[in-house]
Amino acid sequence: MAKERILVGMSGGIDSSAACRLLREAGYEVVGATLRMWDRNGQEAPFIEEARRLAARLGIEHYTVDIRNEFNEKVITPFINEYMKGHTPNPCIFCNPNIKWKHLIDEADRLGCRMVATGHYVRKAEDASGVWIEEGRDKSKDQSYFLWGLTPGQLERTLFPLGDYTKREIKELMAGEAAYEKKEKKESMEICFIEDDYRTFLRQAVPDIDARLSGGYYVDSKGLRLGKHKGFPFYTIGQRKGLGIALGEPAYVIKINPVKNTVKLGKRDELASCRVTLSPYVIRSTELLRSPDTKVCIRYRGERYGIGGITETPDGLDVEFSDKAWAAAPGQSAVFYNGERVVGGGIITYAQPVKQ
To answer: What's the pLDDT tens digit per position in 293-323?
Structure first.
C-alpha cells in the first residue's frame, strides 16, 4: 500500500527539518517545499539552498515556489507603509493565512498531497465544534499568537508535528545533524525578511527617510518639546530603551504622531489602556469569546487580560479590558484565548488610554 504524501514547508532550519523527520517516522511520504518570498542582495536567499541540501540529506523531493512579487506587494510594502503611519505591524499575521498557507496548499494540490505540515510549536485540536489552534506544549516557544488568521479549511489540511515537543527535545532529536552543530537558523517567530533590525531595513527601503523625518521632537503630555528624535518610524509604543534622551526618570513612548513627526514620552502609567478596537478581526466562536474564562493577549508572549465587554461597531470590534492593559500598539494583534484554545483575533487600530 502506497504511503500518504504530505507536503512540508521547509525553511532550512531545525524545526521544519525535524517535522520532516518525525513525519517520515510516522509513515508518511514527505515532500518538501520552500517559498521564495524575497531575495538578499539580488540573490536567492541562503535558506533556500539550505532547505534543498537538507531535503537531499533526508532523501525527499523538494520544490521551490517563487512568490517574490506577491510577497513584496502584499507583505513587505504594507509593512513599510504601516511603520510610515506610526504603527507597529506584524507581517506574519497576514502572511500566514493569505500567503504561506495559500501557496503551500496550492503546491500540495499540484503534487498530490492531501495534507501540509509546518514546524510551528502549536497543536491542532478537533472536536464536535470544529478544528482549532491550541498552544504548543512548550510555552516558551508557543506560536499560536501568529496563527489566529488561519481558516478552518486551512487547519483541516494542516499537521503540526512539533506541537507536543519542547524545543530542547527537538534539539536532542536533531543532535549530530551537521547543519545544526555550528548555528541554529532564525526562529520562525521572527520577521523572515529582516536580517538585523527593522530600522536598518526601513532605511534601505525608504532611502530619504532620515532626510525627511529626522529632527522631529519628543514631546510630553502637554505638548512641550523635550528634545529631538531620529524619526517617528523608528519608535514603538512602550519603548523605553534606545531613546537617546535623559529626563531624570524612566521614559516610555506613549504615542506616535506621524503627521507632526512627534513622539510623546511619559511614565509607564500613561501606557495603560481600557479598550482597544480591532479591524479586521476573526471570531471562531461567539459563545467561547464571551466566556468568563476567555482572555485577550495584545502582544506576543504578553500578559493575558480579562475582558470586561465586547461590542461590534462600524469601526470594528471594541474590546474593553476588565483591568488596565499595557502598551497596546496599533498594528499589533489582539488574540483571544479560552484556556489553551485560540478562539479569534484581530488587528489593533486604536487603543483608548485610561484617564489619568
So the answer is: 999 999 999 999 999 999 999 999 999 999 9
SS3 71: helix
Residues 6+ apart with CB under 8 A from 20: 8, 10, 30, 32, 54, 55, 58, 60
Distance CA 131, CA 159 (A): 12
Are 269 and 224 spatial neighbours (Cβ–Cβ below 8 Å)? no
Describe the chain by its helix, strand, coil percentages, rounded to 5.
Answer: 30, 30, 40
Using alpha carbons, select from 29, 77, 19 the residue that is nearest to residue 51: 19
95 is catalytic: yes
192 is a catalytic site residue: yes
Residues 6+ apart with CB under 8 A from 201: 193, 194, 195
- Bridge partners of 219? 225, 264
User: Annotated catalytic residue: which of 20, 92, 113, 192?
Assistant: 192
pLDDT at position 187, please?
Answer: 52
Three-class SS state of 90: coil
**Under-70 pLDDT residues of the chain:** 1, 177-189, 356
Among 20, 92, 95, 297, which one carries the catalytic annotation? 95
pTM for this prediction: 0.94
Each residue of 9-24: pLDDT tens digit? Answer: 999 899 999 999 999 9
- β-strand pairing of 333-338 with 341-353: antiparallel
Mode of pairing for the β-strands spanning 115-117 and 5-9: parallel
CA 131 – CA 154 distance, rounded (Å):
10
